[in-house]
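pinging the channel bc i need a second pair of eyes. not urgent but kinda urgent?? the chain im working w is below, pasted from the shared doc
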Amino acid sequence: ADTGAAPADTGAAPADTGATPADTGATPADTGAAPVDTGVPDSASADTGAAADSGSDASSLTCVSTFGKALTTAFGRIDGTVVAVVGPDDVPCPRDNDHVIVQVRMGGAVYKLWVNIGLVAGEVWTRSVTAPMAPPAWMDGWHTTGVKLDYVTTFAAASTSFTSATPAELTALMKKELVVGDPVSIYALGYASGDGAHDIHRYKTDMDGAIVVNPKTSPSKFLLFRFASQTF
């Protein structure tokens, strides 16, 4: 059962620091609700805000430290191109200890998309789904009008179909699937500073986050994520 309820999210995020709101991983059992997101940076976050030097490791060394401000606090879908996939250990990129940060170029600026990978093995579970992407068709921009995604009603996905993963495995998965320079679509909730979005996991009715690996191809490949305590 999914109540459609989700804990309050203030939408706050510090500007220009690369910090993301904290996500505790706690959620009421059997409700399908998302963990609490306080809008406060993770206390253990090692986000330097520094840009990386150029190099051969495209997943991390293409990262930037200057970001746009055009995202709203609505649930939406960002369509753009992959700039970098930054894991917790990708020094000196702006990074976080329990998220992968997918940097996406949209509208001439780069934005931060925060994907929770947890701090311990089994905290975040994942699966992929192949399905057509709902309109609008991929077009560079931040789309919010009529955009919705729900793991249950869109994909008929049950929590039991997800696979447990470690933070390292989730990081490796995204670095494998997301290629720098390729188009990407990410369903997420924007936050107040306008430079990024988060809650890219099971969240609440019609507002579930996901990564679309090949959004210009139909059907497309969706990467879905849930917390271990979420059932639906």
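so Confidence is low (pLDDT under 50) at residues 1-60. and Residues 167-177 form the longest helix (11 residues). — does that match what u expected or am i reading it wrong
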